[in-house]
């Protein structure tokens, strides 16, 4: 029978397990509560105290939180894309019933995929232009943590956009664009303040990152449309 | 009739003081040469160290330079937008003179209509940017930033964008698509410069800075999108829909 704990090396009493496993459970529980309280804190204060929230949560320790927020953003864009597509077609009188033409799963998947691709490409472009080309020392996780916290604003505007798309798809698109713009305003601020990006280099790095993402996304969209067209033509042929 | 100059007391020749007149001409030449020198320095500085340049020149003294820069920006924008539009129409294989001869109403030609609308819109957008910065700085957050400093900051921020517009204007003759990409690239540059400019100009705290930057960029951006949508894109699409079958042909891909 073992006399010492295999995890922490403390001497064991007969038949009594070491308390280190309990401590581990406690730490995990604390982490969980931190995650949920952090999430609530961000949602509450991102519009009231954006700078303070950025300062607190744009650290690599909050990478997991950023992943969750980013995932929420991707899922919301899938919904936004589906409802916008339906409402554009319906409001332009090209379809008789609002939800009859577009398949929910395929439209949702295309929207979510496009957003995920866009975020991945933007992160790559930021690392390339801000990190490598202009020699900023921040890590991937820090850039992603900033993205995660900033993505709360477009997520909120997408929810508003989904509701407004039933009234006017143009209004929904403007609200969505506004969310994206606010995302970039706070991102610029966070890069300067938290990542210590050189302000003399940022006017070059950020436009290059955005435009390169934009160009690659157009190519990705083109390929996605071509695949859909090929499938459609193939199905109708047979 | 006065025989002596009221400013320097010297005798007048035919009612004119030659000494004062020479001084006035000299001082006007000095001001204009200063503005020219400052302008050249600002252009160089905005390319190498935009933040330092914005810090150095965003003050009350350089408001005239800022105003001239805004004027150059407005003219460059109209030049770029008009020729981009014209070259898209020409690249699509349509005779532009035929298009230009068509009219919106009995008295107003379509080109004149577009140019006037564009001019009014861009002046309004520039005014909106200056107005929002002034509103947030002086009225909402009460930080006493002079309107002259705001004008110089906005003007200097727009200089790099003006250079980009001129490149886009030249590029529109070769490829309208490339010209559009250059336009977007420099427009984002302008927004980033404005954001940095607001930071250097204001004495606001970080949260207030974010509110000011967001409003300064978001409201004119929406106005710009609306203008592009209603005045240009819509007309290009309507016109090209009737005369050109392929979108790739229009963009010169």
Summary keywords:
heterodimer; A: mainly alpha; 8 helices; globular; B: mainly alpha
Architecture blueprint of SSEs:
The complex is a heterodimer of chains A (238) and B (253).
Chain A: H1 20-45, H2 50-57, H3 63-91, H4 104-133, H5 140-150, H6 152-165, H7 169-193, H8 202-237
Helix pairs in contact in A: 2-7, 3-4, 3-5, 3-6, 4-8, 5-7, 6-7
Chain B: H1 18-48, H2 50-57, H3 63-91, H4 96-101, H5 110-140, H6 147-171, H7 176-201, H8 206-243, H9 247-251
Helix pairs in contact in B: 1-2, 1-6, 2-6, 2-7, 3-5, 3-6, 5-6, 5-8, 6-7, 7-8
By DSSP (H or I, 4+ residues per run), the number of helices of chain B equals 9
Form type of chain B: globular
The largest inter-chain interface, given as chain pair and residues per side, is:
A-B, 29 and 30 residues
User: How many runs of DSSP E, i.e. beta strands of chain A?
Assistant: 0
> What is the typical, i.e. mean, pLDDT of chain A?
82
Structural class of chain A: mainly alpha
Radius of gyration of chain B: 23 Å
SSE order of chain A: HHHHHHHH
Please tell me the overall pLDDT of chain B. 78
Biggest pleated sheet of chain B: none
Strand content of chain A is under 5%
Low-confidence segments of chain A: 26-32
How many angstroms does the end-to-end distance of chain B come to? Answer: 73 Å
- Indicate the proportion of strand residues of chain B: under 5%
Low-confidence stretches of chain B: 244-248
Proportion of helical residues of chain B? over 70%
What does the model show?
The complex is a heterodimer of chains A (238) and B (253). Chain A is mainly alpha-helical and 238 residues long. Chain A contains eight helices and no strands. The longest helix of chain A has 36 residues, at 202-237. The N and C termini of chain A lie far apart (71 Å). The model of chain A is unreliable at 26-32 (pLDDT under 50). Chain B is 79% helix and 0% strand. The longest helix of chain B is centred in the last third of the chain and has 38 residues, at 206-243. The chains are: A mainly alpha (238), B mainly alpha (253). The interface between A and B is medium-sized, with 29 and 30 residues.
